[in-house]
Design brief:
Keywords: Repeat, WD repeat. InterPro entries: WD40/YVTN_repeat-like_dom_sf, WD40_PAC1, WD40_repeat_CS, WD40_repeat_dom_sf, WD40_rpt. The chain is mostly beta strands. The chain has two domains: 84 residues, Beta Barrel (Thrombin, subunit H), CATH 2.40.10.480; 69 residues, Thrombin, subunit H, CATH 2.40.10. Helix content is 0%, strand content 56%. The protein contains no helices and 15 strands.
Length: 164
């Protein structure tokens, strides 16, 4: 399946879709059934580093070396929200319901409300680039996990914003 004009650096698959992002600053939406690119999303000003299809299969979330996180409509291909606030590259994103996490080379993790597009918290306990972040439900709690170039893995509780 060809479509990008430069290197492809990230992908996600869910339901009947695959989404890909690359160094051409583009996002492609592919339909698995036909193996065809059905949309090309344009908006990032630097290459797309990380991408996810939301569990609702209506939204795509992307993070870029332009320091922005974007929320897109799968149906229309339109960018619905631009989440700005990181001071360096976006390294990873993860979602759980309306909670969206972004990690960055600026040593921080931001917690966003997907509905409003507002940053509700910034976690800054890593002392080097944050390489990846994920979110999961465990024992009736929502937990965030992050790994960093500072050689640590941190586990955060969503209620306190503190690592445990």
């Amino acid at each position: 399946m060809k479509g990008h004009i430069e290197e492809v650096r990230c992908l996600d698959a869910k339901g009947g879709y695959v989404v890909s992002g690359g160094t051409d600053n583009l996002i492609k939406i592919w339909l698995l059934e036909t193996r065809a690119c059905i949309k090309t999303l344009v908006g990032h000003r630097n290459w797309v580093r990380t991408i996810k299809i939301h569990n609702d299969q209506e939204h795509i979330i992307s993070g870029s070396f332009d320091t922005d996180v974007r929320i897109w409509s799968i149906q229309t291909g339109n960018c619905l929200k631009v989440l700005s606030g990181h001071k360096d590259y976006i390294s990873s994103i993860s979602c759980f319901g309306d909670i969206l996490l972004s990690s960055s080379f600026d040593h921080s993790i931001k917690i966003w409300d997907m509905k409003t597009g507002k940053c509700v918290a910034t976690l800054c306990d890593h002392t080097n680039r944050v390489a990846a972040v994920d979110v999961t439900a465990y024992n009736r709690e929502v937990l965030f996990v992050s790994v960093s170039y500072d050689c640590t893995l941190r586990l955060w509780t969503s209620y306190s914003g503190r690592f445990v």
